[in-house]
Amino acid sequence: MFILRCRALKLALLALWALTLGLAQAESAPIRIAMIESLSGPFANTGEAVFRNLTWAVERVNAGGGVKLTGAGAAAGNRTLALERYDSKGQNEEALSVLKAAIDDGAQFIVQGNSSSTAAALIDAINKHNEREPGKRVLFLNYSAVDPILTNEKCSFWHFRFDAHADMRMSALMSVLKEDSDLKRVYLIGQDYSFGHAVAREAKRQLATLRPDVQLVGEELHPMGRIKDFLPYAAKIKASGAQAVITGNFGNDLTLLVKAAKEIGFEGKFYTFYGNALGAPAAMGDAGIRKVLAVADWMPNVPTAPSEAFYRSFRQRFPKPAEDYVHLRMQLMVVALAQAIERAGSTDALAVAMQLERAKVTLAGQTGSMRASDHQFQQALVVGVMERQGEAGVKFDVEGSGYGFRVVKRIAAADAELPSTCNMQRPLK
Fold it and tell me: For residue 36, what are the contacts with CB-CB under 8 A and spacing of at least 6?
């Protein structure tokens, strides 16, 4: 009897030890962030570029001690962030499939941005998941999907956008375009999906308001990621007599477009959302000098010491010219998430969301804050024009191309802000 009691006591102690060890391991496990992006196919380069940005952001948080959880039930010490990648293959259906896989793998925070249609699908899926399984809720942090509808009609408590949306970006571009008194003829071209439609719609609206004297001489929407030869499109642009092109194209759709324009001798300007990276400057070459403009939340040649130090630090981490693609907003996003988790004292999605919608973060001289009413991040924007490296205001080039962007306009966060039609539905608990 005594021996049996001893064995029972040992088994109970072993079970208690295993339970304690399991709880400690669960509490000290990394906080998982799942990046859902196109990592194969025509836009693989954009997905890989984002992954480098987020990797660096996570490394910087972890190097600072990770996320400090001190609330009830939190493990002593800090928890690191872990970034895991899931390939959407450029397909919404695949994105939804890997979303489920990411949640099953334990991810509590989903990040995505390189497609507004994918972002809309993820918002719908996450809304349904969080309602169906309140014990496994997740948050969606969006760094690049800029269709305005995502923080207007489709706004969600579980979705936070850290990039300026298309209307905000267009307003920044138009603040420069409207001052070009020689410009009389414009051509619109974009990708045939929700974001491309939003860009075209807002460009026409703002042109009519700010420059009614400018004639729209052509408008074109093309299949996204499927066009290999843009020469026919470039020929139509040149034949139209356009003096400038306005486009939201990104990735290969932009690079191939500017290459084709250069090949046929188009000498007009390009007002772009993403013309400052991923091969576009090198593709345009000298033909783009003082003709290619781009809008962003930040550019490497922002003329401040904190900005320069930030960029030099990134280039030290990723020294290859092909890796030169850094966005300050992605760094601010990860910092904001880490701070929100710390303030919540938990990784619970509801608690973190309540803190994240009050986020205010500063990095490299850039300060941004989340607007609680629609979860649209508010930050300064800049417009730059392409120049040769070494020219005044162009200390840094892009991707080793020898061309960089000189900042010609800085728009304060208060001036970049636009109203929202969001009617936020908040969870009861």
Answer: 86, 88, 95, 98, 99, 102, 110, 111, 112, 118, 122
Domain assignment present for 255? yes
pLDDT on residue 362: 97
CA angle 217, 242, 270 (to 5 degrees): 115
d(CA 108, CA 141): 11
How many structural domains compose the chain? 2
Q: What angle do CA 5, 8, 10 make, to 5 degrees?
A: 110
Residue 150 backbone class (left: φ over 0; alpha: ψ -120 to 50; beta: rest):
alpha
- Whether 109 and 33 have beta carbons less than 8 Å apart is answered as yes
Which residues span the domain enclosing 260? 167-304+380-415
- The pairing of strands 244-247 and 215-222 is unpaired
Answer yes or no: are the C-beta atoms of 147 and 198 closer than 8 Å: yes
Over residues 179-200, mean pLDDT: 95
Closest CA to 145 of 350, 375, 355: 375
Residues 6+ apart with CB under 8 A from 276: 292, 294, 296, 299, 384, 386, 398, 405
pTM of the model: 0.89
| pLDDT, tens digit (0-9, with 9 covering 90-100), for 389-423 | 999 999 999 999 999 999 999 999 999 999 999 99
Is 420 within the bounds of a domain? no
What are φ and ψ of residue 428, in 5° steps?
-70, -35
- Asked if residue 18 belongs to a domain, the reply is no
Residue 424 lies in a domain: no
Do 180 and 100 fall into the same domain? no
Please, are residues 273 and 294 in contact by the beta-carbon 8 Å criterion?
A: yes
Per-residue pLDDT, averaged over 108-115, amounts to 96
Tell me which amino acid residue 12 is: A
What is the token pair recorded at 360?
A: 């205010």
CA angle 97, 118, 34 (to 5 degrees): 55
Single-letter code of the amino acid located at 429: K
Residue 124 amino acid letter: D
Question: Residue 336: which CATH number?
Answer: 3.40.50.2300
* 397 in Cβ contact with 391 (< 8 Å): no
